[in-house]
Description:
Elements (H helix, E strand, L loop, with lengths): L1 H12 L6 E3 L14 E7 L1 E2 L11 E2 L2 H19 L6 E3 L2 E5 L6 H12 L2 E3 L3 E5 L6 H10 L3 E7 L3 H7 L6 H10 L4 E8 L6 H14 L3 E6 L15 H17 L3 E4 L2 E3 L13 E5 L4 E3 L3 E5 L3 H9 L5 E6 L2 H13 L3 E3 H8 L3 H14 L3 E4 L2 E4 L1 H26 L7 E3 L1
Parallel strand pairs: 2-6, 2-14, 3-4, 5-7, 6-8, 8-9, 9-10, 10-11
Antiparallel strand pairs: 1-21, 11-13, 12-13, 15-16, 16-17, 18-20, 19-20
Helix pairs in contact: 2-3, 2-9, 3-4
The site of iron/sulfur cluster (SF4) has 11 residues, from loops.
Amino acid sequence: MSAITSLTRMWLTRAVRPFTFKNEYDQNLPFAECDNLGLYVHIPFCKSICNFCPYCKVLYSQEKCNRYIDALLREIHMVGSQYHGKKKVTSLYFGGGTPALAANRIKEIIGALNKYFIITEGVGLELHPDNVTVDVLRTLKDAGVTKISIGIQSFREKHQSILGRKKIDADAMMSALAAVPFETVSMDFIFALPGQTYEDLKADIDEAFSLGANHVAIYPFIDFTFTESPVSAMPKKEKRELLDAITQYCLGKGYVRDSIWTFSSVAGAKYSSMTRDNFLGFGCSATTLLKEQFKVNTFDIDSYCARIAEGKLPTSLTIRFTKRQRMVYWLFWTAYSTKVNAADFKKFFGVPLKSMYGFELWLAGRLGFVKEQNGVYEMTLKGAFYYHYYEDFYTLSYIDKMWGIMRKEAFPQRIEL
Ligand SMILES: C[S@@+](CC[C@H](N)C(=O)[O-])C[C@H]1O[C@@H](n2cnc3c(N)ncnc32)[C@H](O)[C@@H]1O
Ligand code: SF4
């Protein structure tokens, strides 16, 4: 598996050199030069821990959460104050964990960010179904949240029990969503679960839109090596049939596919923290992507707070990209939106996409993965499946390895991927 990702990496970066992350960092982050910059804030607390989940999170305690947010505010001031004036950014996303558990402090966090940044495309935040109450939604809306994403996983009881999640009170959720409207109401589902059929998935999506969602994210189940989930991933052929069928269903209903995994029922409903050219991440495990570097904060909450108390950034690892590595990174995450615009590539790197990856684009066209129109390369259904498929490899070879180490060591010396 890692042989496939290593060979692809060597081919596309035209070098044998692996992606090397080192235990070093810049205290001053060069984000002033970045356009199309997004913001991300990680809140790592949950009321109960799901055994399939790879994210950086711990059990919620009010005291720990408050201490963490005090440190988070200091990190925001440390980074934000490096810029003179206010920097324009696209969006702000709160992920976790379950950021809605800190609903009463979200206003303070957005206020701190507003001192240094002008957010132009709204604020998104993740909730567990238990948090979808009128009180919490009002608090979030009052704080400035414009988009919410609810982790449903499945409305089917058999799949909730496979994932160890409790039954969802759909009526209560519907009335809370009707009482407090948001620009985007997204619901997360996991597909390719054991025994899951097209009918199951279709019923989940229909239920989401009927309860008040205007956007859905359908993530393939990933069996991370360091999680203790008893669920194993669905075989490739079955998974492809399911993905193709559900994609056709959503497109047939007139929903817009705005990324590999997401569909919206109305224009303008969007929820994605991934497709940004650059982003600044705050909080433990948060990542920052700039023109020439990518950095990861420590996953350990106590070490995070301790570093901040010393007046230092909580960065654990940094990779300084070669030009080709940055191009591959850009292409991989831009392709996630299902479209790559050659003009955007030229604007970002100053060279034509065709001059750097002409052969690969030709090959992708011949294999039926992409179609080109006026310099925009759009993924076909087949291309989207193979992207999905490759992303599984990428996740298991790169993210699984890195997160597996970062969960155990607050500041590892070096990681090569
Ligand atoms: C941070 S959680 C969402 C908010 C909240 N904590 C919750 O669980 O309801 C982010 C999402 O990642 C997805 N996810 C978690 N573990 C996954 C896995 N092993 N494979 C695929 N998707 C996963 C789930 O759909 C989940 O809703
Ligand atoms: S899926 Fe959500 S609730 Fe479950 S452990 Fe992960 S972040 Fe927490």
